[in-house]
Amino acid sequence: MDATAALNEIAFWLERERATTFKVQAFRKAADVIAGLSPEEVAARRRDGRLKGMKGIGERTFEVIAQAVDGGIPDYLAGLRERGAVPLVEGGRELLACLRGDLHVHSNWSDGGSSIESMVEAARTLGREYVALTDHSPTLKIANGLSAERLSEQLDLLAGIEAAQNETAGTDAGRPEVRLLAGIEVDILEDGKLDQTPELLDRLDVVVASVHSKLRSDSRTMTRRMLGGIEDPHTRVLGHCTGRLLNGSRGTRPPSEFDAKRVFAACAERGVAVEINARPERQDPPDELIQTALDAGCLFSIDSDAHAPGQLDFLQYGAERAARNGVPPERIITTWPVDRLLEWTGGRK
Question: What topology is assigned to 93-345 in CATH?
Fold first, then answer.
């Protein structure tokens, strides 16, 4: 087995299991260290002892590389694959099979940990038909949000990735195509405006609008702010609407207070999908608000909010919650084919 591929696959499974960032990065770093070496050079360094002395190669990663070089599947990877064969959550399997895409994904251009290409490759492995890159907007400095200049650079890069995909299309019939959509998770500012220029938002396939600051504002203030974001014609998805955190490395945070009936009525009227955020530490919206959104006639978007390749599989959690709450598949935009989705968003055809 290719040693670099083995290390990256281990990182994928660890991310899926919500392992610590330090543990995951040990394997990704080791993969980067040997990525520029030929398999023959890796094998030679293993034989003469130089591999163990390379910076970024630890005891566990050396063992993985050595077993891959010897022609077998590393024991550590085999154990992770066995655990990974078990679903992350019971329930929602039929709905999960209906999901075609994911409209909320981050890369290392903002606060994600991996390249755009790595995220797309993981989406392909999981059978996604499309994935939207939605890095943060500039006000969220703690997440390295994209300025107008950096977003413009990213859009040029996405065009290049898309062109490269088109050039290789059909050369490998066993590799399904993944449509990479241009998007953003844009902050809804305190005045209800979106945190990016309208000209750049016009160039995107999908805009996810979220509140990230002053989450403990009073209900009236938060409602007014969210309605402003929903009323912007660029907004297509309302991201993690309560901002709550139930567990995880960032601790816990109670849900924001807002007039849910007014907010979801506005979403239904404006054709803005309510995100069912699949991150297990968020589970946002809470079940009772999913019911309120259902009653209001809203559309939904089940999204992973992935910040690493293995987290793309978090869609399992979102599908389970949507199914448990009786959300019809036809009202979930991420079950739609990409052409129908882009017709709805007004994005590129």
Answer: TIM Barrel (3.20.20)
